[in-house]
Each structure stands twice: as C-alpha cells, then as structure tokens.
Amino acid sequence: MASPRTSVRSRHKNTLLKVVILGDGGVGKSCLMNRFVSNQFDEHSFHTIGVEFLNRDIDIDGETYTLQIWDTAGQERFKTLRTPFYRGSDICMLTYSIDDRTSFNNVEMWQDEFLYYADVKENTQFPFIVVGNKSDVASEEREVSQLEMETWCNENSITSYIETSAKNATNVQEAFKLAVQHWLRLETRADRNAPLINDTVNLKSKHSKNRTSCCIGATDD
Amino acid sequence: MTKLVKEIAVTATTGQHENELIGIAKIPLNTIPAAGMTMCSGKNNQVAEQEHRHMLRIILLHELEMSKVAPHWWCGTFSPQGEQLLTQHIAQSGLTPTEVALCQWSVFAGIHQNHALSFTLFSNLLDKLVKPLQTGAVLEEDVKLFWDATKKLLPSCFSVIRKIRKKSASEKTTMKQVTEILKIFNHINSLEPLPSTDLFPLVLYPWVTYNGEGPNCNIPATLNDAVAQGANDWMNHILENNKRADETDISKLQNLNQIIHLVRSDLQKAIEFYDKLFQDGYNSLTNGDANANPLIEGTSLFELYLAIQRFTTLGIGLCPADCDSFHIKNFHLWFHRGVAQWLDIAVYKALQRIEKAVELDKLVHVDNTVKYSSSAVDTLTIFYQVKVFWQQLNWPDVEGCYTFIAKIIDDICRCCVFYADKMSAKVDGMGDVQDIYEKKFEVTNEWCLAINNIDYVRETLEPFTRDLGMEEVIRKISELKSPVEAQRCEHTLENVIANAIDTVRNKIIELLETVVSKMAPAMKRLLIEGAELCNQDSNSVDRLMMYVDNNLSTLHRELNEENFNRTLEIVWDMLSDTLGEIIQLNLDKRRPPSFFDNLRKTLNLMLGSFKNPADCDNCDALRRTEQILRINGLETADLIHQVHLDLTEQFKQVKDSPYGEISVRSKFEGNTLTIEVMNARNLMAMDSNGACDAFVRVHLLPEHKFSGHDKPKTKTHNKTQFPLFDEKFVIKLNPEQRQIEDAILLFSVKDKDLLGYNNQYIGEAFLHFKDIEDTTQPINCLPQVHLQLSRPTDTTMTSDTVRALERRLGDKQAKEFLRKFKQRKGS
Predict the structure, then answer these.
(1) Higher confidence at residue B324 or residue B491?
(2) How far apart are CA B453 and CA B446, in angstroms?
(3) Residue A81 and residue B399: Cβ atoms within 8 Å?
(4) CB spacing of B337 vs A80 below 8 angstroms
(5) Tens digit of pLDDT for each residue in B294-349?
C-alpha cells in the first residue's frame, strides 16, 4: 500500500473530519477507501481486521479538509471491535453492493448501529451518505436498482447518495466530496443555530446529550 | 407465673424428664389470662431475659427430641404449643424483638454445639441483630452473651468449611449451607468484638496460622486458613484411603497414578461446577440494572475480570495439559462488550484528571532544566495510567488487541486535543497590558509554557504508543493471519499515530496563531501611526520595532526552534494580511504616495531586522505586499515610467508579433545618443488596401526627465508593409540625463492618417539605455537590433501599476496618460 499521507501540514491548520465507512462484509469498503486514498484497487483483498485507518486531504471550494477515514470490518464477529470507533464521527458512509440485495437491506441496520454507538444527539441531522458500490457489474447481475436506493434514501431523509465502482474508479472521489459537502451544509446550519460541541464522554446513556468529537479542529474554524 | 417458670428452670437443670415439663407447660396455656401482661410489667428485664433463655432452651430441646430432626436442619419452627408458650412469655415480660433475638442467638448457639441447627437460622437472626449491635443499642451484659454464643457457633461453621472438599459441589444444600455460613461470617465481620474476645482460641483452632498480638478476631484470615486446611485434610484423606499395598515400585507408581487421577477428577468437577457459577453470575451482572452507575459498575467488572484472569493463570499453571478444556480459559469472551466501556471509562477519567491537572498548574517551569510546567508532567502520568490499564487487561485475543490499540491511540489523541484546549483556555486573557496610552498584548511566559506543554505531550505520543506493545501484536497477527495483513494493520496503526501527532500539531499552530493575532492590533496601530506621521518626528517605528522585538525575544527564549520558526512565519503572514488591509483602506481614502512609501520603509526595516532572507518559504505574500506598497508609494510620473518598464520586460517575451518588427541601431558616445531607425517588416495592414503608411516616433522615457528634447520622427513611407526608413537621429543629453537609471527608448510605429489627425497605432517597441552600447565605433559598424512590435494587453491593463494609476482619480497626469495608453492598446 502506498503511503496515504499526501501532505504533511507544516503551518496551516486544516479542518479535520472523521469519516466512518460501514456496510456488510464484502461490499468493498476497504476498496473504496484505498481507491480514494491511493488510487489503487486490489481484486483479492483480505477481510479487514477490526478497523483500518487512512487519511487524505481533499479540496472543496478552495478549502482543504483532512479526511480521517476509519474503514470497519463488516463481519458480525468484529462488532465489538468496530463500534468503539463510531463516537466522534463527522460523516458516516453507509455502503452496500448493488449486486447483493441483502447488503442493501442491511443498510438500515448499519444506520441504527451507528446511531446507537456514535452518541449522535437525538433529533439532529447527521451527514449520512449512502454508497452503492460495484456499479461496474453487468446489468443482469444487478439486484438493487438506483431508483430503489433513491426511494429508500428519501424515505429515510438521507439526501446524499451515489453509486460507485472502486474497481474502475467511478464516482469514488465524488462520493467523498459529496459527503463533505453534505457535512458543510449541516455544519453551517448548525453554526447558525447553536455551536455547541462538547468534548465529553457521557457514560450514562448511549445517546448522550452532546455529540463528541475527536477532531475539535473540525468544528471551530 | 414467676414461680412456675422457676420450677421449669429447676427441673431443666436437675435433668428431669420432659414429660413432666410438658405437663407443666400445658397448665399455663389454660390459665394465663389476658391480664397477665399488666402483672408482669414491673419485672426486671435481666431476669426476664434469663427466664426466656431457659424456657427457650427447654422447649427447643424437647422439640428436637420429639421431632428427631436431622442435624443442620432445624431452622426455627416450634410446635404450635411451644410457639404459643414463648409468645406468651415474651408478651408478659415485655421483651423487645432485639432482646428476643439475642436470647435465641445465645440459646441456639449453645444447643448447636450438641445438636447442629440450620445455618440459615443463625444468618437470619444476625440480620436482626447486626443493626442494634452496631449502634450500641444493646446492654453490655447482652453483648458479652452474644460474643460468648458466637464463639460457640463459629467452630461448627469452620468445620463445614474445612470439610467442604468432602461434599459434592453439585449438592444443592451444600451451596446453600456455604452461602449461609459466608453470610454469617460477613455479618460478624462487620461487628466490633469486645476487646477481651478471643474468637479463635488455639485450643479449638489448632490449624489457624494467626501470629499477631492479642486475641485473634480476624475472620477473613481464619477463613483462608480453613480453606487451606480443608484442602490439606482432603489430600491427607485421599492419601490415607489409598495406602500402598506394598513397597514395590510398581505399587508406588500405581498409587501415585491413582492419587493424581483423584485430584484431577476433583478439579474437573470443580471446573465444571464453578464455570457455570461464574457464567450465571456474570450474565446476571451484565444483564443487570441498567441504571446503575456505569463508572462503578465498569470498575467492578474490570476487577472481576482481573480476578478471573489471575484465577485462570493459576489454573493453567496447575494443569497445563488440560487447560484447553477449561471453559474459563476463554473467559475474556464474556467481557468482550465490557472492554469498549472500560476504554471509555479510562478516557473519561483521563479527561477529568487532565482538567484537574490544568486547573492546578501554576504555569511555572517544573525545574530549571525544562521548559514545561506541571500539567504536562501530570498529563503524561495520566497517559501512563491508561497504559497500565492496558497492560493489566492483557487481552488474550490478538485481533482485539490490535483494534483496541488503535482505539487507545485515537483516544489519547483526543486527550491531547482536550489538554491543548484546556491549556489555551487557561492562558487566554493573560498578557493583556493596559497603560494610559494604549492597550496591548504582550507575549508572556505563560503563553510559551502552554505551547511548550502541548508540544511536550505531543512528543511523547509516539514513544507512548510504542509501549502499548504494538510490535508484539503485529508479529502475532503475522503468525495468525498472514504477513500481508499484519503489514496492513501496522500501516493503520502508524497512520493513526501520525494522524494523532498531526492533529496535536494542528492544535499548537492554532495556539500560535492566537498569540500572533493578539499581537496584530498593536502592530497595526503602530504601522498606521508610522505611515501617517511621515515627515514628522515620530518614534512610532521605533516603538513598533521594540514591541515586535520584545515579544519575539520572549518567544525565542521560551519556545523550541521549530515552534519559534512557525511563529515567525505566522507573524509574517499576519503582517502581510494587516498591511494588505491597511493598503486597501488607505487607497480608498486616497492617501498620498508618501503614506505607502513610509509603510514600505517600515516593512523593509522589519524584514531586515527579523527575517532571515534565506528562510523564505512564505515570502511570496510579503514580496507581493512590498511590491504593492512600492507601486503605490511612487509619484505619478514615476508610476507611469514603471508601467513602461513593465512593458519593456513583457515585450521581451514576444515572438512572431502580428504587428510586425523594426530594426534599429543605436549607440552612446559620451553624452551623445545616436539612433538609426533602419526599417520595418511585416507591419500589420491598417488600410483597406492591405498596406500601411507607416512612420516611427522615438520617445525618451521617463518623459519628465527628458523635457526639452524633441521626440524625433521618421518620414512616412506610404503603402508598404516593409518601409525602409534609414534615418539617423543624434540627441545630445546632459550628464544627468545620461546617468538616469532605467531610462528607456520607446519606438512607436503609427499609420499616418490622410488628414494627419487620427493616426492609427500599429505597435511599439522598447529599448533600455543599458542595452545601448557606449562606443566610439561608427554606427554602421554596429549590429542591427530587431525589435518585435507589440501593444499593451488586457493583462497590462489589470496590472498593479495601471490599477494604481487608475486609483489616482483626481490626478490629471494619470488621467491623461491612461487615456492615451488605452489608445495604444487598441481594441
């Protein structure tokens, strides 16, 4: 794997965003991340053990954002290992594979799991983006239509969705860009209302009052 | 009544038969009237208790005799008659429930010595007694009785514990019995024995290893001894029951075999049984009360985890061969969900402690050799505690280890950021100085310490994470999975670390920026003052230099080089920004050029003093600021000349011009300039006939310095794109004019209008004085110079210089120049 650190910041501080990629095992989460970060694709990649981490800078409207991407293991047996990483996320990428209906049906489960463990403040909009990977498969192998995905997203008030192919590098950059833009929209709205970000761990309840953030830099500039 | 009971007592002590007693007992049942209570109201309490004890004893003995109840079985239920009798007596004597319970305790313990009663009975009695005994609501006499009775009871308890190995653990009653005994111990342990009480006299407890001073009342220690003694006894029992038949080696061997087998099967049974017990207990814990304090619950769970961990280690040490079959070997699986919670607790505690550490920090150097203060050291200690937690956890599953390490690093990073935030909040507001003249910010040692602290913590991040045992875990993953996967995990961990360090560095930069931005207002004010009071005697430049110098030297003294250089860079950035602001504002105010020129001088002064010219990573912004200042500081005539100088440079790049080309020769001889305009080629067709009527005019620039000289002009050559001018002009300059730096010749080629009023511009070319040879050679020996014709472009129009001219709205000279300049540009 190529070194993912594209630039080392020396003077200027960037906005840091923590991104978590979730989805069933085998839908191509790691491939998406590797395509995005190092523009590589490995046909025979392994199962992720627990979590993987990479980061990359992305420029949007002249601003540089450093994405800290946590790629998680989709297998059930890793559940206890991946859930601790949800807290403090800024963006959550829910993935499925368009040639696997089960993985699409599970998106809702992933969303719930995320909301449960991430301590997202209740009744707040969280920047979810739904990503249907493997858009390169032949049309007869497709099990989930784009329309179906869009319908589901609309029903669940998710406004960002995209189909990608990590294999032939379609829409991968766009997916991450879309996610950050979504975050920006919500963030500017939140700033107008009440910029209340508190770095506390609330052990009492799974749904603590304050969303915690490990990247304070992301929120106060 | 008194008489009756006394008789009972007498019969009991003289050992008469119970038949008589029953007879006696029956009488009062019929005769005692309801009014009996008032009769007895005056009775002495002590006596009443004594009577009650006697009565209890007699009735109970009778009860036991009659019912033939098995040992350890009777748990407080009398026959209805006995019950009635006792109730009656209690009522009549006015005994309190505590007194009754004390009587029962004393009597039952006594009887227990000969005929064992149920331990539940005693444990229930203690439930009632503990409170009054603890609060001292019991008479001293009774307390003594209580302890005497307790001494009678305890041997049987310990005897059960000692013999526990002989019982099958799966028997229900055994568990119950042991539970009750332990309850009794727990209760008694919570009481303060009388000073004279020796709970465990050696005579009764020869196996107790107590060797302290005075009477031994240590129940837990005795319990330990009892268990150990029990194991010993049991081993002896096995050895005795399996005596060797003879002294041959074979029988020795067989004997050993048998014994080992017995021990093993015993352990096996224990494992099966206690495994289940543990699991039940654990499940009830994890599924238990969700509202319990998670911090305490989590901590207790972790303690349980550690206890089981030790237990398992012991088990594996005892029988390494069988350890795979232990259920408990994989005990960590029960705690899987707990670890995330523990990690959270660890972070939560760490954050709390960090906050406290920052609060307590006095912001002074820890000692003379270091440049950080106490909270940095405290924070490291707090991180160290997290590490200790991780080491204690000693998580057996490698994949889990790897992920948890990633999590810990991420958490520690979060702590660092938290620390940085708290630190900057603490120093915020420090260093604001106000005197009668001004309010300004001075960099203080506290600020530097805050920055150093964060940096110190950041530096230790990497060694800290290495200490978590990353390499070992990666090696194990490599063995368990594959080297490729291990490499990926390693990459992830390294990325997480790098990211953490970077994030904290980000935080430091943020703090440095805060410092610099606090310096900005003072610097801005001094800069403006300096520029405003241009020609007057003003010390504002000196004050600015002093201010910057003071603050920078504080920073330089306290910060490390890396951070100091960063600060410098930020200062220069800030300076560029501030100057940019000032420039914009004052251009709008139409300040005279001298204003900007003064600013430029100040800037150069500062650059000269503080900036190392070689270190110019971010000079672009500064250079640009300087350039803008320079341009705006020029008088209009100089500014116009600057436009021409810029064009001279720009035109040098032109190739294959559509406007054509001219050839000239020129030379200096002393102060005499000779110019020969030779010809032009490929002139752009200006007329409808596809040719042009061209002439060349030569200008000496800057115009105002060559006033009095003609602008020589060639003849017009009609209807050709290739005119041959071949005209020579000799211009006598005075020495000053000869020496003008940056003087240039402008050749403008025009198309002659028929009427001569509206000449069209074809193009122009520049020749710098410095490119003209100073020679005595005749001019026709010199080489021709071919100059591409060009015109000002859109880029020229938007250049800083032209912009600056445009801004001088009230300036006629500028206005006139621009009008002509636009014509030169053409359309």
Answers:
(1) B491
(2) 10
(3) yes
(4) yes
(5) 666 677 777 777 777 777 777 777 666 666 666 666 777 777 777 877 888 888 88
Given a cut of 80, is residue B743 above it in pLDDT?
yes
Chain B environment of A201 (Cβ under 8 Å): 344, 347-348, 351
pLDDT at B618 over 70: no
ipTM of the complex: 0.77
Which residues on B lie below 8 Å from A55 (Cβ)?
495, 499
CA–chain centroid gap for B579, Å, is 38
Average pLDDT estimate for A48-65? 87
Do β-strands B439-441 and B672-681 pair in parallel, antiparallel, or remain unpaired?
unpaired
The two structure tokens encoding residue B804? 């600056």
Tell me whether residue B447 is exposed, middle or buried, using C-beta atoms within 10 angstroms of its C-beta: 0 to 12, 13 to 18, 19 or more.
buried
Out of B37-46, B156-165, B299-308, which region has the weakest mean confidence (pLDDT)? Answer: B37-46
Contact yes or no for B12/B21 (Cβ under 8 A): yes
Q: In this complex, do B407 and A55 lie within 8 Å of one another by their Cβ atoms?
A: no
Three-class SS of residue A41?
coil
Residue of chain B nearest A68, judged by CA positions: B499
Q: Considering only CB atoms, which chain A residues are within 8 Å of B294?
A: 203-204
**Interface-testing mutation among B334, B503, B569, with chain A (most A C-beta atoms within 10 A):** B503
Q: Contacts by B83-89 with C-beta closer than 8 Å and gap 24+? A: B84/B29, B85/B25, B85/B28, B85/B29, B85/B55, B85/B59, B86/B52, B86/B55, B86/B56, B86/B59, B88/B28, B88/B29, B88/B32, B88/B36, B89/B5, B89/B51, B89/B52, B89/B55
Q: State the pLDDT confidence band at A21, using cuts at 50, 70 and 90.
A: very high
For the whole prediction, is pTM greater than 0.80? Answer: no
The pLDDT tens digits for A96-105 are 999 999 999 9
Percentage helix, strand, coil for chain B under 3-state DSSP, each rounded to 5: 65, 10, 25
pLDDT tens for residues A171-186? 999 999 999 999 988 8
Q: Are B187 and B127 in contact (CB under 8 A)?
A: yes
Q: What integer pLDDT is reported at residue B613 of this predicted model?
A: 54
Give DSSP secondary structure letters for A168-202.
TTBSHHHHHHHHHHHHHHHHHHHHHH---------
Q: Which of B295, B407, B487 sits opposite A85 (nearest CB)?
A: B407
Pairing mode, strands A91-97 and A15-23? parallel
Query: From CA A37, how far away is CA B520, in angstroms rounded?
Result: 39
Which of B477, B495, B509 lies at the smallest CB-CB distance from A4? B495
Both structure tokens of B560:
């490390």
pLDDT at B335: 77
pLDDT at B663: 93
B329: burial class by Cβ within 10 Å (0-12, 13-18, 19+)?
A: middle
CB B461 within 8 A of CB B413: yes
Residue B591: left (phi > 0), alpha (psi -120 to 50), or beta? beta
Q: What is the pLDDT of residue B428?
A: 81
- Exposure string of B167-186, with b = 16+ CB inside 10 Å and e = fewer, is eebeeeeeeebbebbebbbe
> Looking at this protein, which amino acid is placed at residue B742?
D
pLDDT at B33: 45
Residue B661 β-bridge partners = B681, B788
A52 and B339 within 8 Å at the Cβ level: the answer is: no
The CB density around residue B643, as the number of other CB atoms within 10 Å, is 21
For residue B187, count other CB atoms closer than 10 A to its CB. Answer: 18
How many residue pairs from chains A and B have C-beta atoms closer than 8 A?
117
Cis peptide before B215 (omega within 30 of 0): no
pLDDT above 70 coverage of chain B, percent:
83
Contacts of B352 in chain A (CB under 8 A): none
The pLDDT value given to residue B21: 42
User: Which residue among A51, A55, A83 sits closest to B499, beta carbon to beta carbon?
Assistant: A55
> Which H or E run contains B327?
none
